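User: Predict the structure for this protein chain, please.
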Amino acid sequence: MKKSLYIIISAIAIIYSLWYGHFGEFSGNNGSMSKIGLSHPFLFAIWGILTYIALAYGIAVGYKKIRKRYYIPLLIISAIGMILTITCDFDYSLKTQYIAHCIGSLTFSAVSGITVFTLFLSAKNYILAAVSAVVLIGDLIPLLIFKETAIIELAPIFIGYILLGIFMFEKEKNTLEIK
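Assistant: Here is the predicted structure, written as structure tokens:
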């Protein structure tokens, strides 16, 4: 049931993200999710909430699978980041709000990405850990070159959904530990 619910939630988040992104341009700076949010703040809030819920649910299910609980404070920090992101305008003329928005966005992205990476590392799934690390580091390069675009913002999120789904559907490994 948890796995099916995750697939449904993440599918809804992906479909909504793509629909919401059509209000801008996917490859240009004016098409970043935050820029679109200036014209469509309510839709931006829905996007942020759906994105957070899909990632948080996948992370929680993944950590329950490995019976670890240290993800909870990380999800709280990530949620605070998303709250700042969706409640503060991405408008440079409102410098305090702009800075709070950027700090929130960076906090959400970094903490969520690190939490997913740590999940795979803790589960000793080094392939998924390596893929998530490559995605996180690899996403930084186009972000620095092209600034924010919807594609650059959404790619690591969508890949995170996919990696979490793969992890959930993996069979438990029966290993014998010698002490």
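The chain is about 75% helix and 0% strand.
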